[in-house]
Amino acid sequence: MTKTIVLSTGNVVSSGPSIIRKNGAYRSNLELTSSLRNNIREAKEEFANTAAENGQTNGNGTQTPVSVWTEEDGDVLYVPRINWQYGGLQEEPSQYDITVKLFYLATGTSSSTRVKHTREALSLVQKELRIQQVDLLIISFPGMSFEGDCEWEADKQNAGQGNDEEELPTWSALELLQKEGLVKNMGIAEYGSEKLTRLLERAALKPTVDQINIKNCCNVPPPLVELAKKHNIELLVHTDCTDILPKGTLRELLGQGPQGAGVLADKGSNSPGLRGDLIPQWVIKYTAVVRDRGVIENKGYFAGAELRDA
Amino acid sequence: MGLLALGTALEWEDAKKQAGLVREWGIRQLLEIWNKAKTKERDALLWGDEVEYLVVVYDENDKKVVVSLRQADILKALANDTELTSQGGGVPDLQHTTGADHKTPLPVFHPEFGRFMLEATPGAPWGIGFKELLDVEPDMKLRRAIAKDHMLPTEHPITLTTFPRLGSPGVFTDPYYPVSGPKLRSQFVPDEIANPHIRFPTLAANIRSRRGRKVQVNVPVFRDENTPWPWKDPTVNYDLHNWPEDDDVRNGAAPDNFIHMDAMAFGMGSCCLQITFQAKNITEGRQMYDQLSPLGPILLALTAATPIYKGFLADTDVRWNQISRAVDDRTPEEMGEKPLKNDRWRIPKSRYASNSTYISTDHRLRPEYLDPDLVVDEDIKAKLLQGGMDDRLATHFAHLFIRDPLVIFAEDLEELDLNKTDHFENIQSTNWQHMRFKPPPADNSIGWRVEFRPMEIQITDFENAAFAVFIVLVTRAILSFDLNFYIPIAKVDENMETAHARDAVLQNKFHFRKHLFPAVRAPRSAGPSGANTPVPSRPATPVGPVEDEYRLMSINEIINGTEYARSAASQTKDTLDKPEDEEENDFPGLIPIVEAYLDSMNIDVNTRCELATYLDLIRKRASGELWTAARWIRHFVATHPEYKRDSVVGEEIAHDLVGAVIKVGEREQKGCGFGGLGLEGLDKLLDGFRGGC
After folding, report:
1. Which uninterrupted H or E stretch holds A69?
2. What does the alpha-carbon distance between residue B160 and residue B658 come to, in Å, rounded to a whole number?
3. SS3 of B340, please?
4. CB under 8 A, 24+ apart: contacts of B649-653
5. Is A118 in contact with A172 (CB distance < 8 Å)?
6. pLDDT at A306 over 60
7. What is the DSSP letter of B253?
8. Are B517 and A17 a contacting pair at CB < 8 A?
9. Between the CA of residue A60 and those of A47, A156, B267, what are the distances in Å?
10. DSSP 8-state secondary structure symbol assigned to residue B176
11. Distance of alpha carbon B399 from its chain centroid, rounded?
12. Membrane spanning segments where (chain A) (predicted)?
């Protein structure tokens, strides 16, 4: 039997140090992992007192039973539980630029599964922000990077990364989301000039954005600049890791260790918690910016993982 | 500085009698606009910058440089040209020289107090499109090009904060006028130094009359190897007997070891870089006013550019206190020098000073932060409360309204016009605090605004654009991350004084809040659902002593963060004490916070790189890798062959300094780098920024 675990961060914009980049770190998943950890810790604390009143615990957050601060809904376990009543934006959706970035984490996933994951992820964002449509969906495929001593090098290395045969069918299948009106524009992440050329040749759906990671040197390789210009694709900057939620990190987050949430059992022990193989599937990052004021009102992440019987 | 309509300006004896009326009418106008605009919502972020210039007459071969008093002619030429422009011509070859885009509205030029000054603003306000932020620098360059184009070939607009030899004996203006005129009664500058529009000489004269003596602008002199000590300002004339005020210096107005100045022009003749933001609504405006206030002294020290006054090196680096003293209209009673008899109260600060109020409705504003010595006109406050204004905002305006109006036009007293804000603005705009909270105009056509006023003008437009854009980004980070910069107002005052010290940017420490982020974040989306599920209950955040909320930090630490300041890259001599709990006390730094903001936005590669260049400049100025303009000017003087290590900045040094600044400006206009100019220390000011040719 397979169970889906949905992790969430809540709104991280005012959550302090976890959003500040460490000195010299040009890409990191620190924002995601520390805000997941914070959100779990806060949920435990919030529910500790009420749990204590019910005689379930001594009021110390670390002891709060998992069942109190998580929520099970069919095959889905929400870690922590989400109160959708707290969601929504302060003004009507038309005032915002809403960008989501979807990271596919597992390789060897069929395009239909990926579309399913995308729909799950998008519907969580829709519910959280109470919106119908996102302005931009950026797709990040696994195994991609745009790294090297300089961007020239990055572009060269990039050409051989990822797997076109997995990516192209997924990309094409996502067009449906745009037709359904869930997504206004589609973008791609970490596509160098060669990969982008191949995508443009073979797919009907044109990205409006290619999001790349840049280090100190601001020289984007000219072939990519020209290609983007020719096809009206905006080259945007990001500082995310492609492998934003590695398996080991997730297990540590949810495990029985001192930093763990105590949701998962330790392997090969008698410790409490869920058992099985936990495989991260996707992460969605959402950002809602008040368009004509440049103010970030809401930013957060959901992550989806599958728990399979070991 | 906006110009009021011409009319009959009252001399102080008459103006004084009308002060109460102007205040009363001003309050009624304020309540009118407040009622109209308090519910205004969702105004976009629009912002504007103001750049001020000195106009100098410079000839490379004549070893003398002076200021030009042709402001009126230059403005006339600009005005005439605007008419031509609208008919499709008039500004020759601008496109060619600056690459500027004529589709954008052309810049606007304004007169300033000093007749040797100009002010220029963009033709239309800026928005928050990130690409638009990159238009600021070309627009500033365009303004300078247009200004230069309407001057004589020997005239140049430069952005030094002060003219190094303003008020020195001999000739420093073109045309020349003798000193000791009836309005200023200054023994150093002629009346003609001020804009001749009746408003300006009246302002200067009424400040002097209200005060009962001339203003006293005394700056400590920089003591060099050969500076005689004690130092007596050799330019002070103790034998002048034209005006009663000539007694001032005989009565101790010019103490030893201070450069002595005696007129409004020494302060209001300084150039600065001011930024005004439109807020979403009154609540956001009040929040921005408060949150930017503690940043004022930091940005003042970081932009330091004023080491010379009246031909002498000063021991301070910034203009602020000199302006403060140059417009200080307080009477001896108000200053506490005599017992209160005729005046209503003692007033601790000049009309030009650091902020005295916090005004936000923010729950994080603790009463302990407020100024315990705030002087408030209780009658006016009662009227504002009666009119429906809340206590905090009423206190703010009732504090501004302790001042007398300085320039009153007889014609304006005939009838109260509630469709105007002239009487309100009369008081509001002569309260020169380091922030200004601006209600919408009478027609309510624009939103609530906040003006950030402490920054010194920088020599190049690259630097001016960098600081303008930086502050804009800081405001966006404040609003996005809900940052909290509150420290007690008394500590902001103290920081403002600290910012004056020579090289304060590297040598001094400032009170700054340790934790900017909310202790508890805004409602999480993870909470209970349904009636049967547990309800979260969170204990109230414990509130500790205010003194634990802030500590002393270097500007490097404030701007770049503790981690950066600690690292070897940092040039500051400051050795950071290792705090007991390192992580806990680590301050993130304003630039990393701005970067975190940028990381969350969709920004194209080019724009991000350009913005990174601006942040780099500020990072390096804060860390000491680069010098402030003040330090560069000191270095220029110290290495000049004519300098005798006696604190005197003679005519030839001043000439060459201004010449250097003009050369840098010409290079910038050409879009060339600053290398190869052969100017001593220029690489420490501007590094390799903006390339080379």
Report:
1. helix A66-69
2. 9
3. coil
4. B649/B164, B649/B165, B649/B308, B649/B311, B649/B312, B649/B313, B650/B311, B651/B63, B651/B64, B651/B65, B651/B165, B651/B170, B652/B63, B653/B164
5. no
6. yes
7. S
8. yes
9. 10, 54, 61
10. -
11. 21
12. none
A77 vs A29, more confident: A77
Chain B residues within an 8 Å CB radius of A29: none
CB–CB of B473/B597 below 8 Å?
yes
Give, in degrees to the nearest 5, the angle at Cα B223 between B220 and B229: 95
Provide CB contacts within 8 A for B16, sequence distance 6+.
B210, B404
| DSSP 3-state of B656 | helix
- Between A87, A136, A293, which is nearest B128 by CB? A293
Q: What are the 10-residue block averages of pLDDT along chain B, 693 residues in total?
A: 68 96 98 95 93 97 94 89 54 39 75 94 92 95 94 97 97 96 95 93 95 96 98 97 96 97 96 97 97 98 98 98 98 97 96 97 95 96 97 98 96 94 96 97 93 98 98 97 97 98 98 87 41 42 85 97 79 48 76 94 93 96 97 98 98 97 94 82 88 58
Cβ count near B637 (within 10 Å): 25
CA A8, A13, A18, A19 dihedral sign is positive
In whole angstroms, give the CA distance from residue B265 to residue B173: 13
Q: Any chain B CB within 8 A of the CB of A238?
A: yes
Q: B483 CA to chain A: closest CA distance, Å?
A: 8
**Cβ–Cβ below 8 Å for A43 and B564:** no
Q: What letter represents residue B287's amino acid?
A: Q
To 10 degrees, what angle do helices B12-37 and B378-386 make?
30
Burial of A208 (0-12, 13-18, 19+ CB in 10 A): middle
Contact criterion met (CB < 8 Å) for B536 and A50: yes
Q: What is the average pLDDT score of chain A? A: 89
Taken as a whole, chain B contains a residue count of 693
Q: What is residue B439's predicted lDDT score, i.e. its pLDDT? A: 97
Are the C-beta atoms of B550 and B366 separated by less than 8 Å? no
Contact A81 B527 (CB under 8 A): yes
Range of the domain at A283: 3-308
- Tell me: ipTM over 0.90: yes
| Interchain CB contact of A218 with B (< 8 Å) | yes
Give phi and psi for B618, each to the nearest 5.
Answer: -70, -40
Residue type, B7: G
Q: Residue A236 and residue B604: Cβ atoms within 8 Å?
A: yes
* Cα distances (angstroms) measured from residue A106 to each of A140, A249, A309, B262: 11, 14, 17, 75
In chain B, which residues have their Cβ closer than 8 Å to the Cβ of A17? Answer: 517, 588
Measured from the Cβ of residue B154, the count of other Cβ atoms closer than 10 Å reads 13
Q: Does A280 touch chain B (CB under 8 A)?
A: no
Q: Check CB contact under 8 Å for A296 and B595.
A: no
B529 and A82 within 8 Å at the Cβ level: the answer is yes
Number of domain units in chain A: 1
Distance from CA of B563 to the nearest CA of A (A): 7
Q: Length of chain A in residues, anyone?
A: 310
Q: How is residue B249 annotated by DSSP?
A: G
Chain B CB contacts of A49 under 8 Å are 536-537
pLDDT band at A156 (very low <50, low <70, confident <90, very high): confident
C-beta atoms of B605 and A21 within 8 A = no
Minimal CA–CA distance to B41: which of B275, B283, B277?
Answer: B283
Tell me how far the alpha carbon of residue B21 is from its chain's centroid. Answer: 30
Contact assignment for B44 to A17 by CB distance below 8 Å: no
Closest partner residue to B522 (CB to CB) among A11, A46, A54 is A11
Decide if A23 and B567 are in contact by the 8 Å CB cutoff. Answer: yes
Report the gap between the CA of A269 and the closest CA in chain B (Å). 30
